[in-house]
Amino acid sequence: MKILSWNIQNFTLSRILDPTDEVTKTRSREHLAYITTTVRETDPDVFLVFEVRCEQGPTAGVLANGLGVAGLEQLFVALRRLHGGWCLVPPLRVNPQAFDGALPLPTRSESVGVYWRADRLTFTGPWVWPAGSPNGPPAEPGAGMAVTYPVGIDGVFVPAGTTAAPRLDWTSPAGPIFFTEPHDRRPLQVSFAEIPPAGNRTINILAVHPSPARAIKALKPLQDLMWGVAAPKPGELTVAAGDINVNLLSAGLDRQQAIAMVEMANVYARVPPNPLVGTIIRRGAAAEPANYNSNRCVDYGWVRYTRTAPPIAGAPTARAIDRVSGAPATAPFPAITSHMFRKLPQIALIADVNRRNRQFRLSWNYGHIGPLAAGDGTSDHLPVLLYL
After folding, report:
1. Do the Cβ atoms of 331 and 314 come closer than 8 Å?
2. Residues 6+ apart with CB under 8 A from 217
3. Are 159 and 140 spatial neighbours (Cβ–Cβ below 8 Å)?
4. C-alpha span between 316 and 338 (Å, rounded)
5. E strands, 186-344, where?
6. Within-domain flag for 155
């Protein structure tokens, strides 16, 4: 089981399809090629896309819309060209717009893209699409609750007849669980069953992207989910993964204590990139050929197996997918190519440092991978491949 997790910064349709002029058309085409070739080389079973912009609204869990969702649909078309088995879980709004009286707070609504290979996995929920509410939110399974998705989704983005849906509604006897404010992004749970002979496990995935300002505090309610309603049953494993926004390369005691709390008694195993490197890359003039990776590792996960859903050989492990430099194959990970037109060893031969840096930052080199300015590049995050 392989999960590719990627915060594609401020993801909207224009990131991968922008016909405004020839420059934007070429740039967006380079972004799309970078994304799709990364999926092809890593060959994941599930592909998570974080930071998908969507239209704001007061309700979380309903079908998302807007240019970010249009981008997910366009990416779906591109993934289908790679393999006809790619499907897209209908995107939901994962945080509502917050209101203070009649005035909206400065928040934005987002969604999460969840793509899966339907030839390898069956989408099982954990909740269902509700009867009588075509736009959602999903409902807990029960008699007469499940219906297929609306026209334009059923049989298009999901296999015809699908009634499975994610879970986004988190409550306890004390009331709703927030992460940590009502308008913050909530973990999205999706569940998949492996299709034999590849396996016979059920994988519960919590797609996690807390607010950077409150990420440490958000680990406590996340722990409650991981140890409570999302804990794996026999035959299942649970993985929480995404942009955690808590830096593993920081020595801060508060960060270490918050992470240790999630991993209490080592029941959940941390799955960081191996080797442990920064998953945030540098912006603008700070990005240089020998110094483009920051000292911030915020993209990783945790996993809990059960006796009847054990790890596959070599798991759990993860790797940051660095297509600036590329990397040789190291079991269980495949070789990763550089997506730079002019490779780092060639650029290193340029004697003049200013000319060398300019060459490095050109659009067809680092410039289409990392952000040189607002709106440029594909993302300031490297994708991370988790092997479970």
Report:
1. yes
2. 180
3. no
4. 25
5. 188-194, 202-208, 236-243, 269-271, 299-304, 317-320
6. no
Q: What is the rounded CA–CA span in Å between residue 386 and residue 264?
A: 21
Structure tokens at 287: 């990005």
Is 144 contained in some domain?
A: no
pLDDT of residue 171: 86
CATH of the domain at 74: 3.60.10.10
**Domain span holding position 296:** 2-126+166-387
Q: Tokens 């031969």 — which residue?
A: 349
SS3 of residue 21 by DSSP = coil
Q: Which residues of 207-217 are buried (b: 16+ CB within 10 A; e: fewer)?
A: bbbbbeeebbb
The DSSP 8-state label assigned to residue 368 in this structure reads: G
The pLDDT of residue 94 is above 60? yes
| pLDDT one-digit tens code per residue, 280-326 | 999 888 999 999 999 999 999 999 999 999 999 999 999 999 999 99
d(CA 22, CA 18): 9
Q: What angle do CA 178, 238, 70 make, to 5 degrees?
A: 65
Q: How far is CA 184 from CA 2, 189, 316, 317, in A?
A: 28, 16, 29, 29
Q: What gap in Å lies between CA 164 and CA 240, rounded to an integer?
A: 20
Residue 21 in any domain: the answer is yes
Inform me whether the pLDDT recorded for 103 exceeds 60. no
pLDDT computed for residue 100 by the predictor: 46
Give the chain's domain count.
Answer: 1
Omega of the bond prior to 197 within 30 degrees of 0, cis?
yes
Give tens-digit pLDDT for 161-174.
999 999 999 987 78
Question: What is the distance between the alpha carbons of residues 198 and 202, in angstroms, rounded to a whole number?
Answer: 12
- For residue 183, being part of any structural domain is answered with yes
